Task: structure prediction
Amino acid sequence: MLRMLCQAFGLESNGSDHRCEQRFINCARALNGKGKQIIPIIDDAQLIPIDALRKLRLLLEDFPKNHNLVLLGQPDFNTTLQLRVNEDIRSCEFPLSGRRIRVLMTELSS
Result:
């Protein structure tokens, strides 16, 4: 997933995971310096292994605080997040209703 994010931002994804991660974090900081933010939106998040989501959450801890991650998933995904073992992922959870999603998408497109 990390390499896909790097490629999506036109960053070199070769080399170690650590180097790829550093490039991505540096890109986020550079965009933040220009007043922009990164908001990855992942649809069908219930299909992503929990370990991968955990790594993604850890990666985003190094981002400027105005960046966000939006995970969209089926109702069973919320059930998975409610398990005690997934509390670290759930700690940054903010469930969105249909109305909130429309407001978020309107804000992102402006």
